[in-house]
Amino acid sequence: MSIEERINKIINEIPKGVTLIAVSKTRTLEEMEEAYKTGIRDYGENKVQELIEKEEKFYKDVRWHLIGHLQRNKVKYIVGKVHLIHSLDNVRLLEEIEKRYFESGETANVLIQINIGKDPNKSGILIEDLEGLIETCEKCNNVKVKGLMTVIPKGTEESNRRYFNEMKKIYDSLSKKRYNNITMEYLSMGMSGDYKIAIEEDANIIRIGEGIFGKRAYNNI
Ligand SMILES: *Cc1c(COP(=O)(O)O)cnc(C)c1O
């Protein structure tokens, strides 16, 4: 199947309110252009360097999503270039985002990434630390929290569903509270292998790489 065919197949399967992010990490601009031609305007990158290089060269009417771990010393490069940062997971990173966006007079839209599987090798905040991060978010002026994101541990359909469902519960409970600067609009979860389950558990942003572009070959880069 071509990139176009894969995208059309996915688009036909997902409900209208779900945003499909084409995860374009390691992909060439030519491959991304194939996605662009089918109407895809949301692109996800996991590295700051790659995102800013592509942002400069690619079509200007696209929305860039930073979906990978964000180091504090890289925040300054993405100000004004990213539609949504999916990977806020600690207070010091938040403080750096607030500072850099304040200096530029911009507002950062972010999702809090939750390490729902408590996987020591994954980024994301642990649920027990969430409250502290939220308290600091409430004091920000240049950061707006728009929802939650997760990358779940590899597992069975059953464990995938359980993690997605836990995320939805956290999302719903935060939705019911009234916070400064924090609204629950986006639940970003589901990748190539599990996006259908994620949507059943109420994801409204899915992030798909290989399911659109085919297998990634990291060693070609
Ligand atoms: C790579 C990546 C994806 C996409 O993964 P696929 O399995 O290629 O669909 C989604 N989310 C994050 C955070 C990623 O790093």
Automatic annotation (TrEMBL):
Matches recorded under InterPro entries: Ala_racemase_N (IPR001608), PLP-binding_barrel (IPR029066), PyrdxlP_homeostasis (IPR011078)
Signal peptide limits: none
Modification sites for N6-(pyridoxal phosphate)lysine: K25
Cofactor section: pyridoxal 5'-phosphate
Family matches, as CDD domains: PLPDE_III_YBL036c_like
Domain Alanine racemase N-terminal: 3-215
GO MF terms held by the record: pyridoxal phosphate binding
Swiss-Prot/TrEMBL keywords: Pyridoxal phosphate
Keyword Transmembrane helix included in the entry's annotation: no
Keyword Transmembrane helix among UniProt keywords: no
Family statement drawn from the similarity comment of this UniProt entry: Belongs to the pyridoxal phosphate-binding protein YggS/PROSC family.
Purpose of the protein: Pyridoxal 5'-phosphate (PLP)-binding protein, which is involved in PLP homeostasis.
NCBIfam families referenced in this protein's UniProt entry, alphabetically: YggS family pyridoxal phosphate-dependent enzyme
Record's protein name: Pyridoxal phosphate homeostasis protein
